[in-house]
């Protein structure tokens, strides 16, 4: 009997201990997700592959579900701070043929006065609007959420005579504004591409700060898909930009006179540069972008009409460029002044690209350009871990620097470029280019000059 009692007590204690152990496992607090204190400066380790590794995702304003039945003057049920201004409540029809411009302008004007408000273009509808300027200043936190389709009139015959042919949607003098959604911005560019006149840019942000553009599909622009000028603090993430390979001047994202820019996790296929960086830009971070077919990622053209250009601190990394006329390009006109410095191209994968790595200081659109005695000064340009295949119609590496102003401090490291088809390995071309080959480059770039040039003529022309 005593042994039976001891055995019973032992089993009871064991069962109680097991229950306590299981209960303890259920009371562990889950780890909080990490957040990025500075979403405009993101980076991570990377090895080149055909599909870029996505960067960490910054925190965005909450997405508002499309709900045309909501009262636009009432706050959303899920938050006490967001007011939704649904364009259908302001008279938008969304059938793709009626002009919904007035409704968008009215919704914007009302939302502009309310902090953290949302102008909503709901899903399932197609909104046609004409050339419009959405201007500020507005209360902070304004969101334009496009969940449906937004498009301009279909071609020049439908374009109002009074509207500008140079731009369609302009966002002007705004601070802390977001353009987002799950929808599409359709440019209807097909009927413009064959015209001799220069058609309009699709979306332009002008003299605005602290901008977020994310999630949208933007396609078939008559000219540039997106342009930012005179802006500071721009975050672009998870965009899809597309137009046919032969559509002229359809740059994906163009920036000029714009500072502190992050472009991440986006796919761009178009008829011109994927991303073009004009004069006056600095502190630009581009990561995890798939580019092509296109004309590649370009700095320039700079210095046109003897103008001054200053570009600095540009980083492109973890990118995939395919089926493109150019890869990584810096292009300047003869006769310009100013400088391009602090440029880094790192972890880039190429596939069947002409002119994979190119510096062209003789950029010209005609055969009448003359050699000038001044040029934009290029220095501190790094190409690191650039690998893949090139189209044998052009040498894979081409450094054509100005006769009068040499390029300096070019660094080549782990550059391996092989023919996409055939066995030809073209020798790189260099002219007045100074730099170092840190590792063996394929093909070898023995044409770089050692050290520094003896002098730069009129140094004052090249400071920024």
Automatic annotation (TrEMBL):
Region forming the signal peptide: 1-21
GO terms for molecular function, please? lyase activity; polygalacturonase activity
> SMART domains annotated for this entry?
PbH1
Its protein name is: Pectin lyase-like superfamily protein
Source species = Perilla frutescens var. hirtella (Perilla citriodora)
Compartment(s) where it occurs, according to its Swiss-Prot or TrEMBL record = Secreted, Cell wall
The UniProt keyword set, sorted, is: Cell wall, Cell wall biogenesis/degradation, Glycosidase, Hydrolase, Secreted, Signal
* Cross-referenced Gene3D superfamilies: Single-stranded right-handed beta-helix, Pectin lyase-like
Q: Which GO terms describe its biological process?
A: carbohydrate metabolic process; cell wall organization
Give start-end positions of Pro residues composition bias: 49-65
Region Disordered: which residues? 23-82
Entry similarity comment: Belongs to the glycosyl hydrolase 28 family.
Show the ranges annotated as biased composition (Basic residues).
24-43
Chain segments annotated as coiled-coil in the UniProt record = none
Q: Which Pfam families match?
A: Glyco_hydro_28
**Where is this chain compositionally biased, Low complexity type?**
71-82
List the InterPro entries hit by this protein, alphabetically.
Glyco_hydro_28 (IPR000743), PbH1 (IPR006626), Pectin_lyas_fold (IPR012334), Pectin_lyase_fold/virulence (IPR011050)
């Amino acid at each position: 009997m005593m042994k039976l009692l001891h055995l019973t007590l032992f089993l009871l204690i064991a069962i109680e201990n097991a229950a306590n152990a299981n209960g303890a496992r259920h009371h562990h607090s889950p780890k909080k997700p990490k957040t990025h204190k500075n979403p405009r400066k993101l980076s991570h380790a990377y090895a080149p592959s055909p599909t870029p590794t996505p960067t960490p995702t910054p925190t965005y304003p909450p997405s508002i579900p499309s709900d045309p039945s909501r009262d636009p003057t009432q706050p959303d049920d899920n938050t006490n701070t967001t007011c939704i201004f649904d364009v259908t409540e302001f008279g938008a029809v969304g059938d793709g043929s009626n002009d919904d411009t007035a409704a968008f302008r009215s919704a914007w004007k009302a939302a502009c006065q309310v902090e953290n408000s949302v102008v909503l273009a709901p899903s399932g509808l197609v909104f046609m609007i004409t050339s419009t300027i959405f201007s500020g200043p507005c209360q902070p936190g304004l969101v334009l959420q496009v969940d449906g389709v937004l498009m301009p009139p279909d071609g020049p015959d439908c374009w109002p005579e009074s509207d500008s042919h140079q731009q369609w949607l302009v966002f002007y003098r705004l601070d802390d504004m977001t353009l987002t959604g799950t929808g599409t911005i359709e440019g209807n560019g097909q009927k413009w591409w064959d015209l001799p006149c220069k058609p309009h840019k699709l979306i332009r942000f002008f003299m605005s700060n602290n901008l977020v553009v994310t999630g949208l599909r933007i396609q078939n622009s008559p000219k540039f898909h997106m342009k930012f000028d005179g802006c500071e603090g721009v975050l672009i993430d998870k965009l899809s930009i597309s137009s046919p390979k032969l559509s002229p001047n359809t740059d994906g994202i163009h920036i000029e006179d714009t500072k502190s820019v992050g472009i991440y996790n986006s796919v761009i296929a178009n008829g011109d540069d994927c991303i073009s960086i004009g004069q006056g830009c600095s502190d630009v971070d581009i990561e995890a972008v798939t580019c092509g077919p296109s004309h590649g990622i370009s700095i320039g053209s700079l210095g046109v009409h003897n103008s001054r250009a200053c570009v600095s601190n540009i980083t492109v990394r973890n990118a995939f460029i395919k089926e493109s006329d150019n890869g990584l390009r810096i292009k300047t006109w003869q006769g310009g002044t100013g400088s391009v410095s602090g440029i880094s191209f790192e972890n880039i994968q190429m596939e069947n690209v002409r002119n994979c790595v190119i510096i062209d200081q003789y950029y010209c659109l005609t055969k009448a350009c003359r050699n000038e005695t001044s040029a934009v000064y290029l220095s501190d340009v790094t190409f690191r871990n650039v690998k893949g295949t090139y189209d044998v119609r052009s040498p894979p590496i081409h450094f054509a620097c100005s006769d009068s102003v040499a390029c300096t401090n070019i660094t080549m490291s782990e550059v391996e470029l092989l023919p996409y088809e055939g066995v030809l390995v073209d020798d790189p071309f260099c002219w007045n280019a100074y730099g170092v080959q840190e590792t063996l480059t394929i093909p070898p770039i023995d044409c770089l000059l050692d050290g520094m040039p003896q002098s730069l003529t009129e140094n004052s022309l090249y400071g920024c």
